[in-house]
């Protein structure tokens, strides 16, 4: 290989790496983001995180993302504006760093979801998990008696059910059609450091 060619390849690889890294941090990477804190996708990088795009696969897919909420008073998450071939009836659920219920929303703009600014103003900044599912695929947690039960009350606005542990699994009764897309629009959120820590 000539030196010129080697340099050219080196520059190309560097440019690809630099240009790919920020974009990749905003999309569901690999095959599928997991549905629980242990398998959630870490949204790493630097600066604010304004969008996450991904797909809900057939058979009750849930995608969970580990994020840094740097400004709880300004935090919001919505499924608008929708991409092409969008999930018709999504749900959003927010969990704290230990997997406990914080808040959620099914329908706000028609069937599309929104957790509006002010919802978690009283919560501390730090690591949270944001999950997107399709109606009516809801998270489950253990009660003190050891049974698995729903961990949110209500709907379309979801509030934490008292006396529940961290999220364990999902009801798996959501959408089972062909793959559909979602785009989450966020505010008050920053990217995690490479280790998954919240840089605030
Ligand atoms: Ca997915
Ligand atoms: Ca998933
Ligand atoms: Ca919905």
Give the SSE map.
Blueprint: H1 3-24, E1 41-42, E2 51-56, E3 63-69, E4 76-78, E5 90-96, E6 101-105, E7 114-115, E8 126-134, E9 139-142, E10 148-150, E11 152-154, E12 157-160, E13 167-170, E14 180-187, E15 189-190
Parallel strand pairs: 1-3
Antiparallel strand pairs: 2-14, 3-8, 3-15, 4-7, 4-14, 5-6, 5-8, 6-12, 9-10, 9-13, 11-12
Bound molecules: calcium ion (CA) (3 copies).
Structural description of this entry:
Helices cover 11% and strands 34% of the residues. With 200 residues, the protein is mostly beta strands. It has a single domain, classed as Jelly Rolls (Sandwich). The strands form three sheets. Strands 1, 3, 5, 6, 8, 11, 12 and 15 form an eight-stranded mixed β-sheet that branches. A four-stranded antiparallel β-sheet has the order 2-14-4-7, with no helix packed on it. Strand 9 and strand 10 form a beta hairpin. The protein is globular and about 40 Å long. About 10% of the residues have low confidence. Bound molecules: calcium ion (3 copies). One calcium ion binds next to strand 5.
Strand content: 25-35%
Give the names of the bound compounds. calcium ion
Classify the fold: give the CATH topology: Jelly Rolls
What is the count of distinct domains?
1
Judged by helices, strands and strand pairing, the structural class is: mainly beta
CATH architecture: Sandwich
Q: What is the string of helix and strand elements?
A: HEEEEEEEEEEEEEEE
- Secondary structure tally, helices: 1
Unreliable stretches covering 5 or more consecutive residues? 5-25
Question: What is the straight-line distance between the termini?
Answer: 47 Å
Write down the overall mean pLDDT: 89
- Main sheet summary: 8 strands, mixed
The helix fraction, in percent, is 10-25%
Rg over CA atoms, rounded to whole Å, is 18 Å
- CATH top-level class: Mainly Beta
């Amino acid at each position: 290989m000539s030196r010129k060619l080697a340099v050219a390849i080196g520059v190309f690889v560097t440019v690809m790496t630099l240009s790919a890294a920020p974009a990749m941090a905003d999309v569901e990477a690999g095959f599928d983001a997991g549905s629980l804190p242990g398998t959630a996708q870490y949204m790493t990088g630097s600066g604010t995180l304004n969008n996450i795009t991904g797909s809900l696969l057939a058979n009750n897919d849930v995608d969970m993302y580990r994020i840094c909420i740097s400004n709880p008073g300004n935090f919001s998450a919505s499924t608008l504006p929708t991409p092409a071939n969008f999930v018709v009836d999504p749900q959003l659920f927010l969990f704290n760093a230990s997997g406990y219920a914080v808040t959620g929303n099914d329908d706000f703009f028609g069937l599309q979801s929104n957790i509006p600014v002010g919802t978690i103003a009283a919560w501390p900044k730090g690591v949270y998990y944001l999950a997107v599912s399709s109606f009516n695929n809801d998270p489950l947690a253990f009660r003190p008696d050891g049974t698995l039960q729903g961990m949110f009350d209500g709907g379309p606005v979801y509030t934490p059910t008292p006396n529940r542990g961290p999220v364990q699994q999902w009801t798996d009764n959501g959408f089972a059609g062909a793959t559909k897309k979602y785009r989450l629009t966020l505010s008050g959120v920053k990217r995690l450091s490479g280790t998954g820590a919240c840089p605030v």
